[in-house]
Each structure stands twice: as structure tokens, then as C-alpha cells.
């Protein structure tokens, strides 16, 4: 029941030195709020950034034709490399580490209309796997392109959500007809709205998607605008990239070391950058918060030194009747942890309120919604335990080392 005695002593001190104890607890409270809120905003910002990035696709690589800068096997430099649809099949066959690949044709010169509504979107010819690569998810009731559409060159189309609004407004689009130029197409799907902060020709909301085979027949294009592929493992991305240069270098007669022969946009590089950037960012935010918490811990240590001073005679009596040093250490440690625990509890409650209010403000798409994640809670509790341990150890150690005779003289 020793802890009950310590709790009674703590409540007695709180009542006797109300202002001093309250200010000390508030120091821990404010430090806890600083750590939790800063880390919560950091975690929310990181998750929103990743969500925005992955609106274009998870771990994809976009491959463009480039221009050679080195002579190779009798061919001069300065030759344009223009990719074809069969390159997608070649790379899929030659490089097992490519999970999926699709060519991408784009036409922006042909009007798309429905009744009096007319627009000029990016008409995109792709394989069915493109939807999975680029996170193009159809609204319920519709679908993306499938293999039969590709094989039979069907005149079917999937609309970006903004194009759907422009052509159909609030009306249902799936099962209705639009015209690409003078050719009728059946709408089989509408893309669900998504956050996308990067693109290379147009955002997916402003595109329409048709089978690559239909595109080729409709427009007669020989060359694709680009290829889109995804490695089976993001860590293999660089190895796959080198294999792509070797495979296409052999086909188009360019030096595989000539990086300008192809243009490569590897989103895995950005993922790695974001990972290390936010690791440093969150460490920085946690460090700032921990400084505030440390100031609160210093306040706790100071008040415990004062408590030791005030109880010098009491310590001497306890030692004189046979109390061991650990019997002196324990109550001071427990009282320190009680002060920190009360301050931490108040801090978590206030921080939770701030996070809830911030989560209701209209800026989630820019900086994200702050989150009190398990990682944030674990880091904060760990810091609080460390602060409590250090703030309690030195005053308690001083109390335990006091000379009983000197204590009784005071």
C-alpha cells in the first residue's frame, strides 16, 4: 500500500503548493501538446503527399522516346527514337521483372461531343491493364476496358469524371452514347474522382480512354506517345530500367548507356525521396516538440529538488528508523511519475481536441489531415517516460544519499 501513501503525499503537496505544482503540470501538458500536434501534422502531411502522388499510379514508370546523343554501330547521334505498340509486348516478354505494361496513344485534336456539349479532351488509347497501373477505378455500375474490347476493337469509352460532368452533367452516363469525331462510342464506365497532383499530358479527370486497337484503327497512328509499366518490386526499378535500355537499344540500334535515347519518369524515385524527406521532417518536428517537453521536465526536476529540501528532516527520521535507500528513492520516483502522468493526460486530451478541430478545416488536400497515429502516441509516451525517469532520478538520488545525522540537525 506504499503507493497509496505516496498518492496521499502528492495530493497534500498539490493542495499545499497549488500554484507551484499546477505550473509544473502545465509545463508537461504544453510539452505533450507540442509533441503530439507537431508529429500528427507531420504524419498527416506525409500521408496526403503520398496519396496525391499515387493518384497517377503506384510504383509506375513512364517511358518516352528520346534522341540519341552518341554514335553507335555506324549510326549517327541525333536520331529520334519513336516507340511502337509492339515494344510493350517485347519488353513484357524479355524482362520478367515487369509486372504489367501498356502502350499509351494520345490524341487531342479530335472533338468529343454529346448533343450540344463539345470538348477536346485527351483521347487515350490503352490496354485494359492501364486502369490498374494508373489507379483509374470506375464508378459502381460501370467498368474499365477489358480484353474483349481490345481484341474486337470495340467502340467503347471510359470517361474521366470531369469530362462526364461536362458532357452529361448529373445524368447517368454509362450505357449512353458519345461521338469521337463522327464515330459513335458507348460509355461503359466513368472514373471515380481521385486526387492527382502530377501528370504528363493531362490529368485523368480530363481524359477519355478507349482500347488501343480501336485508337489505332480510328486515327491510324504508327507510334505510341509512351509506355507505362510497373516492376514487380520497386527495389528492382533500377535493374528493370537498365534492362529496358538494353532491350530497346538492341531493337533501335542505340548505345544502352545513352540515357537521352529514352525519357524515363520513374515514380519509385519520388517515393524514395518522399520516404527520406518525411523521415527527416518528422524527426525535426519531433525534436522541436521534445525541446518544449524537456523544458517541462526541467520544471519537474526543479520542483522535486524543492520537495527533497522540504522533507529533509522527514528523510532523516526514516533513515534513522531503518529505511533503506531504495525506500527513499521509490516515493520520489512515484511522485515524479504522477506529476508527469497528470500533465501528459491533460496534454493528450488538449492535443486530441486540436487535431479534431484542424481535421475539420478545409485544407486537407493541401497539407493533409493531422492524425494521432499509434506511431505518434508511442513516440510521445516514450519521450514522457524518459523525461519522468530523468526528472525523478537525480532528485531521488540526492534524497537517498542524504546523511541521516545532518538531516536530523536541520
Estimate the global geometry from the Cα principal axes. elongated
Radius of gyration from the CA trace? 33 Å
Mean pLDDT across all residues, rounded?
81
Instruction: Give me the side-by-side strand order of the main sheet.
Output: 4-3-7-8-6-9-5-2-10-1-11
Q: Terminal Cα separation, in Å?
A: 29 Å
Structural class assignment = alpha+beta
Percentage of residues in helical conformation: 55-70%
Total number of helices: 14
Low-confidence blocks of residues: none
The total strand number stands at 11
The description of the largest β-sheet is: 11 strands, mixed
User: Beta fraction of the residues?
Assistant: 5-15%
Helix-strand pattern: HHEHEEEEHHEHEEEHEHEHHHHHH
The quaternary structure here is single chain
Short structural summary:
This protein has 410 residues and is α+β, with helices and mostly antiparallel strands.
Structure description:
It is a single chain. The protein is of the alpha+beta class and 410 residues long. The chain has 14 helices and eleven strands. It has helices at residues 2-16, 18-53, 85-94, 129-133, 147-152, 161-168, 212-219, 237-252, 267-310, 312-320, 325-359, 364-367, 374-400, 404-409; strands spanning 61-65, 98-107, 112-114, 117-119, 122-126, 156-159, 177-180, 183-190, 207-211, 226-231, 262-266. Strands 4-3-7-8-6-9-5-2-10-1-11 form an eleven-stranded mixed β-sheet. The longest helix is centred in the C-terminal third of the chain and has 44 residues, at 267-310. The chain is elongated and about 90 Å long. The two termini are 29 Å apart. The mean pLDDT is 81.
Amino acid at each position: 500500500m506504499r503507493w497509496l501513501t505516496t498518492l496521499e503525499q502528492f495530493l497534500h503537496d498539490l493542495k499545499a503548493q497549488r500554484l507551484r505544482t499546477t505550473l509544473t503540470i502545465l509545463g508537461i501538458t504544453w510539452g505533450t501538446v507540442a509533441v503530439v500536434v507537431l508529429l500528427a501534422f507531420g504524419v498527416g502531411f506525409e500521408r496526403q503527399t503520398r496519396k496525391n502522388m499515387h493518384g497517377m499510379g503506384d510504383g509506375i514508370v513512364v517511358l518516352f522516346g528520346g534522341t540519341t546523343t552518341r554514335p553507335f554501330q555506324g549510326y549517327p547521334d541525333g536520331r529520334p527514337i519513336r516507340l511502337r505498340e509492339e515494344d510493350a509486348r517485347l519488353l513484357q516478354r524479355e524482362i520478367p521483372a515487369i509486372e504489367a505494361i501498356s502502350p499509351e496513344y494520345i490524341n487531342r485534336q479530335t472533338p468529343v461531343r454529346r448533343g450540344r456539349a463539345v470538348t477536346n479532351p485527351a483521347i487515350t488509347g490503352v490496354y485494359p491493364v492501364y486502369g490498374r497501373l494508373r489507379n483509374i477505378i470506375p464508378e459502381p455500375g460501370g467498368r474499365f476496358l477489358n480484353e474483349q474490347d481490345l481484341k474486337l476493337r470495340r467502340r467503347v469509352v471510359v470517361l474521366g469524371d470531369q469530362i462526364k460532368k461536362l458532357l452529361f452533367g448529373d445524368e447517368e452516363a454509362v450505357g449512353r452514347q458519345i461521338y469521337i469525331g463522327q464515330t459513335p462510342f458507348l460509355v461503359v464506365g466513368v472514373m471515380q474522382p481521385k486526387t492527382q497532383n502530377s501528370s504528363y499530358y493531362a490529368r485523368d479527370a480530363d481524359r477519355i480512354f478507349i482500347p488501343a486497337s480501336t485508337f489505332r484503327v480510328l486515327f491510324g497512328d504508327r507510334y505510341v506517345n509512351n509506355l507505362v509499366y510497373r516492376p514487380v518490386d520497386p527495389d528492382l526499378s533500377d535493374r528493370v530500367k537498365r534492362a529496358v535500355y538494353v532491350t530497346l537499344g538492341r531493337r533501335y540500334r542505340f548505345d544502352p548507356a545513352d540515357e537521352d535515347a529514352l525519357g524515363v519518369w520513374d515514380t519509385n524515385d519520388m517515393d524514395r525521396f518522399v520516404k527520406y524527406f518525411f523521415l527527416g521532417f518528422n524527426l525535426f518536428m519531433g525534436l522541436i516538440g521534445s525541446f518544449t517537453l524537456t523544458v517541462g521536465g526541467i520544471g519537474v526536476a526543479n520542483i522535486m529538488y524543492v520537495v527533497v529540501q522540504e522533507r529533509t528532516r522527514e528523510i532523516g527520521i526514516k533513515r534513522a528508523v531503518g529505511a533503506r535507500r531504495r525506500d527513499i528513492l521509490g516515493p520520489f520516483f512515484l511522485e515524479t511519475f504522477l506529476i508527469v502522468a497528470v500533465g501528459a493526460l491533460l496534454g493528450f486530451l488538449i492535443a486530441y481536441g486540436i487535431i479534431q478541430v484542424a481535421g475539420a478545416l478545409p485544407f486537407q488536400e493541401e497539407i493533409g489531415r493531422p492524425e494521432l497515429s499509434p506511431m505518434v502516441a508511442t513516440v510521445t509516451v516514450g519521450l514522457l517516460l524518459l523525461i519522468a525517469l530523468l526528472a525523478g532520478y537525480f532528485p531521488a538520488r540526492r534524497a537517498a544519499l542524504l546523511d541521516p545525522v545532518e538531516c536530523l540537525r536541520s
